[in-house]
Amino acid sequence: MSRTIRRLFAGGLFVLLLTGCWDRRELNELGILSGIAIDKVGQQYQVSVQVVVPDEVSSRARKGSAPVTMYKATAPTLFEAFRKLTETSPRKIYTAHIRVLVLSEPIAKDGIAKVLDILVRNPESRIDYFVMVARKTSAEKVLKVLTPLDNIPAEALYHSLDTASKEWAPITKVTVDKLTDQLMSKGMNPVLPGITISENGQSDNKAEDIDPPVKLNYSGLAAFNNDKLIGWLSTNEGKGYNYIRNNVQSTVGNIKCPDGKMISLEIIQSHTDVKSFMEDVNPHIEVQLKMDVNIGEVTCDIDLTEPKTVEQLQKEAERELETLMKKSVSVMQKKYKVDIFGFGQVIYNSNPKLWKSMEKDWDERFTDLKVLYKTKVNIRDIGMINHTVESKMKEK
User: Nearest CA to 294 among 384, 374, 375?
Assistant: First the structure.
């Protein structure tokens, strides 16, 4: 091959590399979506989308209007409802920047698999946004609440759930990819966080108010049987669930002093292992929880320099943790009769042949499943003082 031909060939390849994307779209042609709310209206679906107003999130071009706007449409199918949004939206809705998906309770009870199908099938959508259930309110109303710390409400929902799940044991975060995996996994049923609206009675929702009249609160965990909502876990039941599922990074727990007063413990490290073993011909589950804590607050008069005192507090904390986990398992075995802890998945992973023999009637077997608990709590730091400030004041 001559030098000239080689140069022409290399030049042709270079030109091909410089070609633009065939399906590119300019930003000024798109409506950047930050959150989706899905409700049921009769037998139809209502899709509400929170779309960013670019000028209002730019510090230079702000006019003082809301930083987001909402478009909604109702149709017999979700796909039609999404496409129908173009009746009111001047731009095509772009889903690549979605942060939260809010589902109403009727949608969750009807089944969330059909909702997830259209969203995860879309190649433009990301897979790391959070999914939640609007509790005792509509999903649309949740997306309508403006928040004081973030210009974009969906961003506030995302960041507040992310923070709460790291700092408070009753709350957990679930991304759409994790939810999809749980729905398709053997021996596992999903759980989603609940979001509620609280009002303080004020009439005006002004940006300058210190205490906004309407607030969003994460409240409870929604338990599912396959893809259908069956009930809600209480605060303590949610704690037990998250301890078993190894979801707890940091939180606060309370234990009682001998005189009935309270000591607050800061959980700084928590790790749970769940294993299965056979006893006679029946599978059993063992939950092993290890935790490091610091003493955060003391309201009783005890001497924390005494090793026996610290040992007693550790034992009390271990009993409290076991009680929380037992309560969560008990409510699922006796009331809802659904395995949300993944115990079936643990059995499947350790003994696929055994799981195959019990898979079809696992819900029934789960209600009689024996679960053992081993907890170990280590108090690492008692703080800078050994006694309470109040007790020291009495010695004056």
Answer: 384
Query: Cβ distance 88 to 71 under 8 Å?
Result: yes
What is the reported pLDDT for 23? 47
Q: Are 141 and 134 in contact (CB under 8 A)?
A: yes
SS (H, E, C) 264-279: EEEEEEEEEEEEEEEE
Residue 66 confidence (pLDDT): 76
pLDDT in tens, 75-112: 999 999 998 988 888 777 878 889 999 999 999 999 99
Hey, what amino acid is at 34?
S
Structure tokens at 264: 């607050």
pLDDT at 340 over 70: yes
Q: How many alpha carbons fall within 13 Å on the CB side of residue 91?
A: 20
Residue 356 parent element (H or E): helix 352-358
Task: Give yes or no for a contact between 316 and 256, defined as CB atoms under 8 angstroms apart.
Answer: yes
What is residue 222's three-state secondary structure?
A: strand
Q: Poorest-confidence range of 13-17, 82-86, 192-196, 270-274?
A: 13-17
Helix (H, G, I), strand (E, B) or coil at 63: coil
Residue 15: the pLDDT is 47
Contacts of 113 (CB under 8 A, 6+ apart): 183, 226, 227
**Residue 321: which H helix or E strand, with range?**
helix 307-331
State the pTM of this model: 0.86
Rounded to whole angstroms, the Cα distance separating 165 from 247 reads 8
Q: What is the dihedral of CA 12, 17, 19, 24, to 10 degrees?
A: 160
| Tokens describing residue 211 | 């205490």
Helix, strand and coil content of the chain, in percent to the nearest 5, comes to 35, 30, 35
Neighbouring residues of 376: CB distance < 8 A, sequence distance ≥ 6: 289, 290, 291, 318
Q: Which DSSP category does 17 fall into?
A: H
Which of 176, 20, 19, 39 lies closest to 95, judged by CA? 176
Task: Please name which of 92, 300, 133, 343 lies closest in space to residue 220, comparing C-alpha atoms.
Answer: 133
